[in-house]
């Protein structure tokens, strides 16, 4: 999207504002599809947790996507967006058996990552198809908080527990129709991913009625100019060839599944915030915006990088700024960053704001959350209204207290 279009949207819908470019989401989806074009059965399940707006889900459904969900609420969002249950996979962690059974009753594909839950579910529902999430004990991902396939991770059933896993399946007579793994996000080394895939193939060979293998996702996208990213074309060639060979060994064609979130929506997202103050201190020039980590927490939570541009003065002389928010504690988006000269009232644009940005926002400091806009076919469409104070107090139950009575001694 062009700076002038983003400025116009901020003028129309106010700031702070999230904007998503539908064309970029579509091109990323097709890029992944084309990379695995030689695989007979490919299924892309969008990871809802990245960006769960119903209009975005409907856009992806139009392209043929399925959904990867981690809560019953995400399943319900998918159904509301028009997805059929068989196009949704549910991969929870640490949830109750009651929730898993409630989702299973909706006809959604269940994915279990815990031996205890697997045994309980198999004993009660042996005919319900179940996918198993394994932990391959492979360290991958750009940050310890988003690396989930290593030995100390809470996710997945350890590959070293395979004998126990097989015993549960045999004793319950349950139907295993898929094997799943997810090593982590921001994968840099394709060879590490392929190594983990071999572990998944080995695990899959123990089950004779599989329908699909789910390789998770975690493909890295570029955050700045010339930044490294996952080469999905190379991965498609290498993993696609190996997958087809495995299917030949297995005796029938299986479906290769992925569950990308960030890869599909990160680069499509723009976060727009207005500069309230420019503050010079003894060592720093701060640009304080009309937002904070209540709207975009990733820099504070993960140390993530978001390229920031002054779209009100894109060709101005560059100076060094620390861009900070209005939350009443340390609230830093970027430190000592080169940005075109900033004046109060300018509009800053944060790139790569499509994934895990609005979906992790909150009402901290009793601030309202921003509006969301989808840029589709040359026009901005409001897909979430800006919250109001009434939204903040909507579910609060306000008690009445009697005036204190003075006690005479």
From TrEMBL:
It catalyses: meso-2,6-diaminopimelate + H(+) = L-lysine + CO2. Coiled coil: none annotated. Residues 18-354 form the Orn/DAP/Arg decarboxylase 2 C-terminal domain. Residues 23-266 form the Orn/DAP/Arg decarboxylase 2 N-terminal domain. Keywords: Amino-acid biosynthesis, Decarboxylase, Lyase, Lysine biosynthesis, Pyridoxal phosphate. Its cofactor is pyridoxal 5'-phosphate. Pathway: Amino-acid biosynthesis; L-lysine biosynthesis via DAP pathway; L-lysine from DL-2,6-diaminopimelate: step 1/1. GO terms for biological process: lysine biosynthetic process via diaminopimelate. InterPro entries: Ala_racemase/Decarboxylase_C, DAP_deCOOHase_LysA, De-COase2_C, De-COase2_N, De-COase2_pyr-phos_BS, Orn/DAP/Arg_de-COase, PLP-binding_barrel. The keyword Lyase applies. Its EC number is 4.1.1.20. Pyridoxal 5'-phosphate binds at residues 218, 356. GO terms for molecular function: diaminopimelate decarboxylase activity; pyridoxal phosphate binding. The modification N6-(pyridoxal phosphate)lysine is found at residue 49. It comes from the Bacteria. It is an enzyme of class 4 (lyase). Belongs to the Orn/Lys/Arg decarboxylase class-II family. LysA subfamily. This is Diaminopimelate decarboxylase. It comes from Flavobacterium akiainvivens.
